[in-house]
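Intended use. Records such as the Laccase entry shown here are meant for training and evaluating sequence-to-structure methods. They are not intended to support clinical decisions.
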Amino acid sequence: MNMHALFLGFLVILGFIQSQAALVRYTFVVQETNYTRLCSTKKILTVNGQYPGPTISARRGDTVIVDVVNQASQNITIHWHGVKLPRYPWSDGPEFITQCPIQPGSRFSQKIILSDEEGTLWWHAHSDWSRATVHGLLVVSPKIGTTFPFPKPHAEVPVILGEWWKNDIQTVMEDFLRSGGDPAISDALTINGQPGDQYNCSAPATTKVKVEQGKTYMLRMVNAAMNNIMFVAIANHQLTVVGTDGAYTKPLKTNYVAISPGQTIDLLLEANQPRNRYYLEAKFYNSNPRSLFDNTTTTAIIEYINGNYNASATPFSPLLPTFNDRNASANFTSSLRSLASSAHPIDVPLEITRKLLYTLSINRLPCATCVGRDNRFAASINNITFDTPRTSILGAYYRGMNGVYGDDFPDNPPFIFNYTSDSLNTSLQTPMDGTEVKILKYNDTVELVFQGTNVVSGIDHPMHLHGYSFYVVGSGFGNFDRQRDPLNYNLVDPPLQQTIAVPQNGWTAIRFRANNPGVWFMHCHFERHVSWGMEMVFIVRNGKSADTRMLPPPPDMPKC
Ligand code: C2O
Ligand code: CU
């Protein structure tokens, strides 16, 4: 063999290695850890003692094994938000939907099968309210040998937006459930776990991002807060959105971002301003005048290297939209477009076999034990407030067990009324309850219109579907018009998302192909609305061929 052939052989082997998806392994030890914020110390639930938790790094198409070890004193489950897990719902994580909780002292080895996701995703606890502190990034880089569809950034910067209560989060949740009203508002918002210099005792630990003038940085942003959409901006800098929810978008230049709980946004930041210090600020957006919210501001500092600024001077501040500017939120959200390039093509279903209309409502139910009130809040989809079973729906489905769930989730709301009217009959406030799933056939093409209602009070709902990405083909304020609104659908380059904020007293239409068999949770990503019952389940049946059927469960599935 001559040198030339040897070299070619080497290249072939190298190419082979590069095209192979890797197996990546992590251990997540769930434990209680002391953390001090806002001048007080409390025990929080963490993974490996870290808050926010460790970043999982993988490449497109990899499989990641995470050995979750529960050394805490409470149950836990972990969800890989935005990972489709083709044919493998067993690792998905929502408590009592796809698994029983991992009990203290036990473990569960979760297999995270990546497929076409590329960009920023995240993981979080999916039992009670533990996701407040149990969350982290899941970064999916391009395959070896491929690149970003934009110039390689100088560095990647995580921006994890969160929420901090001085009180124990379990207590916050229990008090909230007992009261029947709204939850106690948080004491701080956070960036990468730090409230920032607008809060007591927090200035020294403010998150700092050092940048070099002339370089471009990629911000991997997730809203991991519990209960509100956020506005984010950086003083004097435009941002360029290049991706959301693990899919690329057309570059979108913007002065601010609106990001839903659950959503991720990838942004490019060009350090093209004088060498100084600039705030990255984040605040809650809250469209509902009747609900209390944490109206504080969390800050991080973008600090240019080699600047000759006064380090004790206040950095420049950005102009954020006002807290209740629902147009600012809806305009940003509806301006996202898929990249839709030949390297990153899209595949919007055009022939629809299942048309669904789901109303999203806040409700009231009588409450005899609520202190100071005779009713408690609830929430519903198509007027059904979800009753979570005490065993896994996936397990029951797989084993053909009766009595855990029903398959009568309605395709349309039970009553037709002017959903977004200012004056609605109070009789509309009472929901039904049930554990109903919607069965889809393999390869059904689904159009689902979410219709926000003004029952009790209209508010945005960031809706999230497990096991799928969906195309957001349209949205608007007011009632969805079956005749007129589809004429304006974007079927050319709609964004591919997993979480979408349905505007207050408005609607959003999504489309997806039901090609991932399994049991998949769908819910509002506001934690209080989940607790109130704004969730349902899709069961997607197996296809006919072996490669379109659910894979069998792993041997170590947790037991109830
Ligand atoms: Cu981000 Cu069901 O979750
Ligand atoms: Cu909601």
